[in-house]
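Running this now, will post back.
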Amino acid sequence: MKLGQYVEKNSWFHRLDGRSKIIFLISLTLMSFILDNIMINLLILLIIVFLSFSAKIGKKFLKSLGKFAGLIVFAGFVWILFYRASLFHANKCGVELFRIGPIIVDSTGLYYGVKMPLRIIIMISIPSLFFMTTTIREFIISLSKMGIPYIVSFTFGLAAQLIFSLSNEYEKIKNAQIARGLEVDSGNLFKRIRNHIPILIPFTVRSIELADEINLAISLKNFNPSIRNRKFYGDKKMSFIDYLLISLSFLILLLSIIVRLGVFHELPKIYF
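Update: finished.
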C-alpha cells in the first residue's frame, strides 16, 4: 500500500464533501505552525490518527507512515546536534546538557529535536489522510467548487495522480530488477547509488511514456478547460456534518490566532 493512495471504504470520513475535508485539514496544518507548542502538535497528530481509524484505514495509514520512520529519527538527531548552527538558533541558548567534541547539546536543541520531527510527521500525514479518503475526481471537483479555476484544479489533480502512478511504476521496475538478481540494498552508499541505475533508466523511459499517454488521452477526449458553469456528474452535496466541520475549522483557526496574539495566558511549553 502506497502512502496517500485512495482506499475505498464506506466510512463517515469518506462520505464527507471534499471541501470540508480540505478546510479542516488545512486548519490543523496552520494550527501546528501558529501555536509553537509540542503538546499541540501531539494533539494534532492524535486527531489525525483517530480520524484514520474512524475512516477504517488506520492500520494501512500507520503502516504507510512507518516508511518515513528513518527520516523522522534522522531529522530529530540533526536538530538535536546541530541546532546551534541553524537559522532557528536564538541568542539565548538553553541549559547545556552535554558535549560531543565541538558539538554542544542543550535543552533548546532537544526541544526542537522533538518539535520539528513532529511537524514533519504532520505535514506528511495530513495530505496522506486526505488522499486516502478522497478520490482524485472528488479532489478536482472540490477545488473547482471552492472558486479555483478548473484548469488549475485539474492540474493539481493530474499531478497527484501522476505521482501515485509513477510510484507504482517505480515499485514494479524495482521488484522486476530484484527478481533478476539486482542487489539494491547491499554494499556501501556509493554502491547502492550505482545499483539504482538499472532502475532509474527504465523508470525515466516509463515516465516519458506515461506522460505521452496522458497527453494523448486528453487530446482524444477533446479536453476544454475553458468551459464556464461546468456541471459534474454524481458530485456530493454538503451535509450538516460538513458545515459543522467547516465551522469547527474556522473556530480552531480563530482560537489559534487569539492564543498566539496573547489574549489568553500563554500555553505552557515543554522544555527539557
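Residues 1-134+239-272 form one domain. More later if anyone needs it.
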